Amino acid sequence: MMRALFSAISGMKNHMSFMDVVGNNIANVNTIAYKSSRVTFQDILGQTVKGASSPQAGRGGTNPAQIGLGMQLGGVDNIMTQGSLQSTGKLTDFAVQGDGFFVVGDGTRNYYTRDGAFDIDVEGNLVNPVTGLSVMGWVADSSGAVDVESPLQALQIPFGTRISAQATQDLTVPVAKAGMIAAGNLDAGTAIGGQVTTTITAYDSLGNAKAIRVIFEKTAANTWGVTALHDIPDTPGPDATPGTAFDDAVTIANGTLQFLPTGELDTGVANNGMVSFTVPAAALGTGAEPLAFTFDVSKFSQFAGASQVNIQSQTGSAAGALVSFAVGSTGEVTGIYSNGANRIIGQLALASFVNPGGLLRQGQNLWAPSSNSGEAIVGMPNTNGRGSVSTGTLESSNVDLAQQFTNVILAQRGFQSSSRVITAGDQMLQDLVNIIR
């Protein structure tokens, strides 16, 4: 009889713990990236009142007889499944699509979180605005290179910092897509002596823009010559109206384009399509170094049809200040500057664990390694199963309310049932006492 009472007490006690866990799950149904908990129960070792026996002397074997002594809390497991992603539209909100964790730190210790509700503080640090912990990753050097083998550093978005001007070194025409005419085409029907002109912009070493008029003149069948004129600011144009005149010649090297009868540039001719331009320092009038760059038109074609010259990219730019940033799915942080330049300024780090269910909750949506989770394996997103980074979104809690309210009923009924056992046991003891009256 006393065994029944103690078993019922263990049932009540552990169903109360069950309700505690369920209540915590329901309370965190709207907590960013919260991972729900699950309770498992175990029975307590039973009391053996009769042992088992093996078959012998023509008799079959007998099973043991055991009376259970109640139940105990087996464990409280972390359910680490992915929560749904909710769009916020905020640039500094991140979510991980996969098994990785963001790394945040206070300069002394690193923690791990799925909560990507970050912001930028007054010093330009990318931080969690609630805890003040910095988001960790790798900072790029001045050339945009990132060393992911170096120790983690706090990431910064230094708005307002400037990059120096870059002199133009290369201009490139985009590569044609399959089955399409190249983005640069010179009309094969142009008569000898006919011209195609375009104006390009190059930057000197001080970041001043220089307009250059490029002239493609057909000099023979399948042959075009390239010449150029640079602008003379604040002088009247050819029609005598105030503006910019293109009167001074630019020095050209490799200024002849040779095409095959099939319309493609003849790749057998050395440096064909790699036209070199040079504008002397005196002609710039800005105190900058001489402007020398290569105009890559090696993807030009010569087919019948409209002539066109489209510039894909160039290496030069004026000086600019950081005005925005973007984070790609692989975690690279790209600074966007006022001069239109983009430069990698950092790399977000993600951590993975051999057993993420073994992590310890630290509060404030933070996790710490335990002896059964393994140490953090830090690397770039989209590598080794860490998942990709989604910007402008946050991960929701993975709590299933339908399951949790079902668990409320289970916990309540389990508690009530155990309490009824105590009531029944008390009545039986009372009847036993009444026998001697």
Structure report:
- Helices cover 15% and strands 36% of the residues.
- It is α+β, with helices and mostly antiparallel strands.
- Strand 26 (320-327) and strand 27 (332-337) form a beta hairpin.
- The longest helix is centred in the C-terminal third of the chain and has 34 residues, at 401-434.
- 27% of the residues are buried.
Q: CATH architecture of the largest domain, please?
A: Sandwich
Q: What fold name stands as the CATH topology of the largest domain?
A: Tick-borne Encephalitis virus Glycoprotein, domain 1
CATH uppermost class of the largest domain: Mainly Beta
Beta-strand content bin: 35-45%
Largest sheet features? 10 strands, antiparallel
Features:
single chain; alpha+beta; Tick-borne Encephalitis virus Glycoprotein, domain 1; ten-stranded antiparallel sheet; five-stranded mixed sheet; 34 strands; 36% strand
Outline the secondary-structure elements:
Layout: H1 2-27, E1 37-43, E2 47-50, E3 65-67, E4 71-78, E5 85-87, E6 94-97, E7 101-105, E8 110-113, E9 119-120, E10 126-127, E11 134-139, E12 153-154, E13 162-163, E14 170-172, E15 184-185, E16 195-203, E17 209-220, E18 223-232, E19 245-249, E20 251-253, E21 256-258, E22 274-279, H2 281-284, E23 291-296, E24 308-309, E25 313-314, E26 320-327, E27 332-337, E28 342-348, E29 350-352, E30 360-363, E31 366-368, E32 377-379, E33 388-391, E34 393-395, H3 401-434
Parallel strand pairs: 14-23
Antiparallel strand pairs: 1-4, 2-3, 5-34, 6-33, 7-8, 7-11, 7-29, 9-10, 11-12, 11-28, 13-26, 14-25, 15-24, 16-17, 17-18, 18-19, 18-21, 20-22, 22-23, 26-27, 27-28, 29-32, 30-31
Helix pairs in contact: 1-3
